[in-house]
């Protein structure tokens, strides 16, 4: 998505440059108490990364998404066992040309990773090892919780990746596997379960510290993204 998360637009879970300034200067008591975790969502272009994050943060299916340029930020605060957990979700671009200037930012201080493929696209599934390799190259180590997600399960007649095959791959990496659909409203709870699973795992990591991108970091990415939007 290129434009939909301009500051203040659409729903209050969108994270924007303005929000980060707000948070860093005069956040309220509840925000100050929330532990914040950075989750990146990665995978080939068109697998549904934006729609999945939108479904989790906005509660609806995003119709007609545009290709993500650089990164989009969204966030949602959860109350787990009386504790506030804020998930800051980085929806990254699948297309190489929209990624290259920002890859370093994606992986910096990341707390968890969601790898997404499209169950109707064998090639998107076959790319998963490359995405895992890219994480490793950027020092995202084995202690960082990771999850494999097969999206677009509503397209039953077009499935190219059997669950059993995906489960084998997930087991080989020791990742949980989720299959779901951002589009099908009856799958909403499964989409939530992906993020909740990570939230519970992160919550139990008492040593993980609150780390937010600095204002200059986010501002720099925002400017880069705007420039790249203009060139297209
Ligand atoms: N049928 C179906 N279509 C979906 C689903 N999720 C996403 N789509 C469609 O798949 C296309 C791509 O969705 P996006 O969420 O933009 O994909 P993306 O992975 O963010 O793509 P990039 O931004 O290019 O990396 C859009 O046409 C969506 O409507 C799903 O669960 N089921």
From TrEMBL:
<dbReference type="GO" id="GO:0005525">
    <property type="term" value="F:GTP binding"/>
</dbReference>
<keyword id="KW-0547">Nucleotide-binding</keyword>
<dbReference type="InterPro" id="IPR005225">
    <property type="entry name" value="Small_GTP-bd"/>
</dbReference>
<keyword id="KW-0472">Membrane</keyword>
<dbReference type="InterPro" id="IPR041822">
    <property type="entry name" value="Rab33A/B"/>
</dbReference>
<keyword id="KW-0449">Lipoprotein</keyword>
<dbReference type="InterPro" id="IPR001806">
    <property type="entry name" value="Small_GTPase"/>
</dbReference>
<dbReference type="GO" id="GO:0032482">
    <property type="term" value="P:Rab protein signal transduction"/>
</dbReference>
<dbReference type="InterPro" id="IPR027417">
    <property type="entry name" value="P-loop_NTPase"/>
</dbReference>
<dbReference type="GO" id="GO:0003924">
    <property type="term" value="F:GTPase activity"/>
</dbReference>
<comment type="similarity">
    <text>Belongs to the small GTPase superfamily. Rab family.</text>
</comment>
<dbReference type="GO" id="GO:0012505">
    <property type="term" value="C:endomembrane system"/>
</dbReference>
<keyword id="KW-0636">Prenylation</keyword>
<keyword id="KW-0342">GTP-binding</keyword>
<dbReference type="Pfam" id="PF00071">
    <property type="entry name" value="Ras"/>
</dbReference>
<protein>
    <submittedName>
        <fullName>Ras-related protein Rab-33B-like</fullName>
    </submittedName>
</protein>
